[in-house]
Design a protein that fits this description.
The chain has 11 helices and 4 strands. The chain has 243 residues and is α+β, with helices and mostly antiparallel strands. It is globular, with a radius of gyration of 19 Å.
Length: 243
């Protein structure tokens, strides 16, 4: 049974800042309550790292999320047949597919680990640097990392997250596209379609075919999904990493 709510704290030093997109975009778009709970938990865990040196990235591991008692209770109250761990995994898949979180697969000490970052322009650049040179993570939470790889969302998850239910016939076409186009092309094509409110596989396929014919290059005015970049050097810098 839930406890009575006695009001919000007014202590500024314990407040957790959230970018406006959480209210202006995500609150209207996210349908899965587990996904929203997981995203808010990542913000909380990242905010708890604000005392770390600026040069150390703010990351959250799957193990941290799985072991978070508050999140576990929050996922348990949703009921249904899924366990909290299954809900966590599905929520993380949805968040990565939506573009709010970045997912890293890290090989370290002979084991594979999953880590998550808030999706910002700065964190995207950091991930690219770590993939090229894991040694950059020396002295951080991921010290001794032997390899780092950004995990791209599954094309089926991207479809269900951004368009709707997947039919068996369309699943075959998506499988063919997954084998034909690079994963980052597929992810960016979905995001571009969503940005222009053209949520259909026909439109996404046309984007991919056009890129295949003409090449991608730098497309002026290209819109990306959620852009936290303007907050990385201002009021929210402590949440997202170094300036």
């Amino acid at each position: 049974m839930s406890q009575p709510f006695h009001g919000f704290s007014t202590q500024r030093d314990s407040a957790i800042a959230l970018p406006p997109e959480c209210f202006e975009q995500l609150l209207a778009e996210i349908q899965d309550l587990a996904e929203f709970k997981v995203l808010l938990t990542v913000f909380r865990l990242v905010a708890a790292q604000r005392d770390r040196p600026r040069e150390e990235p703010r990351l959250v591991s799957w193990a941290q999320l799985r072991g978070d008692g508050v999140l576990e209770r929050g996922l348990t109250v949703l009921g249904g047949e899924l366990t909290p761990e299954e809900r966590l995994d599905r929520a993380l898949e949805r968040a990565v597919a939506r573009g709010t979180l970045l997912h890293l697969n890290v090989q370290r000490r002979g084991h594979s680990e999953s880590w998550y970052l808030l999706h910002t322009a700065q964190n995207r650049r950091l991930v690219q640097e770590w993939e090229q040179d894991p040694g950059r993570l020396a002295g951080t939470s991921l010290d001794e990392a032997a390899a780092v790889r950004a995990q791209r969302p599954n094309i089926y998850v991207l479809y269900e997250q951004n368009i709707g239910l997947l039919s068996p016939l369309l699943a075959e076409e998506l499988e063919e596209a997954a084998g034909r186009y690079p994963p980052d092309w597929i992810e960016d094509a979905f995001r571009e379609a969503v940005a222009y409110n053209r949520r259909s596989w026909r439109y996404i396929r046309a984007i991919l075919e056009n890129w295949e014919r003409q090449g991608r290059g730098d497309r002026p005015g290209k819109r990306e999904g959620i852009d936290f970049e303007k907050y990385t050097s201002g009021e929210y810098a402590d949440l997202f990493g170094q300036d």
